[in-house]
């Protein structure tokens, strides 16, 4: 059975901070006005993606990987992770500020949760005029200072806020205290993990008057108290894979597509394209696959030669 470019049914998540931009900006079939996330490719337990196109339509990504592990994942990825899909791809709509949170590293996540850690990156697809993100501390801090400000409800005073615009990229290593601010649509690439420690949630309550659980003590050991430089500068040369992030968990390139780009790759890793603007076609063995803004496509590792054509902006992600 021949593999082909795979799309998946979006897994839509209601969030207290969510809105409607996943529909209005990215054409996702949301059923709620507080939809915060569209999980595009996931093998998180109880949230495994279902294939939406072609002969494998209706099968889960885990089933396909089980049947064709090296062909889907790639020889190097399979060698490293077995039949686990190691990344999670999402779009987020923050109508309100997200909670201030932190993610544990691999060692801590394995010890406490039998999980990967959660290194991630954000690409800002849309930002309202005054939209901001919180990324790390303004200056080197400590657990004592963090607790004192948390108790006094002054945590924001020691955290670094960044005004953002479309195209900004932030790379968040584990331990970085962070929050996505209101008025942003984000493409997120991360390790396969749903482990989040919530530090502060602005004293919000849900429709039933309940506050969300905080994880203050769990976070103490997970936080990096040093000042971090998370924002990434990158080139935007047309019809070229411009490197944005290269870490041990994933590599992300930015492709400003205006015409054609021939792609020739090895079989070490799968490749994912997230269309963050415009639209494009992928031509494989004279067959055309069409994508638009908000689409995410998984190219199995066994597909090594194809062409991208169109006018749009793509994130290209693989494991190097």
Automatic annotation (TrEMBL):
Keyword set, alphabetical order: Isomerase, Metal-binding, Zinc
* Molecular function, one GO term: isomerase activity
- Domain Phosphomannose isomerase type I catalytic: from-to ranges: 8-114
Domain Mannose-6-phosphate isomerase cupin, first and last residues per copy? 244-318
Gene3D superfamilies in alphabetical order: Jelly Rolls (2.60.120.10)
Protein name in UniProt: Phosphohexomutase
């Amino acid at each position: 059975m021949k593999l082909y470019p795979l799309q998946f049914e979006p897994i839509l998540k209601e969030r207290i901070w969510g809105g409607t931009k996943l529909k209005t900006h990215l054409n996702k079939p949301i059923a709620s006005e507080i939809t915060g996330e569209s999980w595009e490719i996931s093998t998180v337990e109880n949230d495994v993606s279902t294939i939406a196109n072609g002969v494998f339509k209706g099968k889960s990504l885990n089933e396909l990987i089980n049947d064709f592990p090296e062909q889907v994942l790639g020889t190097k990825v399979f060698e490293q992770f077995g039949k686990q899909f190691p990344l999670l791809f999402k779009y987020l709509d923050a109508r309100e500020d997200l909670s201030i949170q932190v993610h544990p590293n691999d060692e801590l996540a394995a010890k406490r949760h039998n999980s990967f850690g959660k290194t991630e990156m954000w690409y800002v697809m849309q930002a309202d005029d005054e939209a901001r993100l919180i990324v790390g501390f303004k200056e080197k801090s400590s657990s004592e200072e963090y607790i004192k400000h948390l108790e006094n409800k002054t945590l924001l005073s020691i955290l670094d806020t960044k005004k953002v615009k479309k195209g900004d990229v932030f790379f968040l290593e584990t331990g970085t205290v962070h929050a996505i601010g209101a008025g942003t649509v984000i493409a997120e690439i991360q390790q396969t993990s749903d482990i989040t420690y919530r530090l502060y949630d602005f004293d919000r309550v849900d429709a039933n008057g309940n506050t969300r659980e905080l994880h203050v003590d769990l976070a103490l050991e997970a936080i990096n108290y040093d000042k971090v430089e998370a924002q990434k500068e990158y080139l935007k040369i047309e019809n070229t894979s411009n490197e944005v992030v290269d870490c041990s968990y994933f590599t992300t390139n930015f492709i400003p597509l205006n015409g054609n780009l021939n792609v020739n790759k090895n079989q070490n890793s799968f490749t994912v394209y997230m269309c963050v603007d415009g639209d494009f076609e992928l031509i494989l063995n004279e067959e055309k696959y069409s994508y638009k803004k908000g689409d995410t496509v998984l190219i199995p590792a066994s597909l090594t030669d194809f062409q991208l054509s169109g006018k749009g902006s793509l994130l290209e992600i693989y494991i190097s």
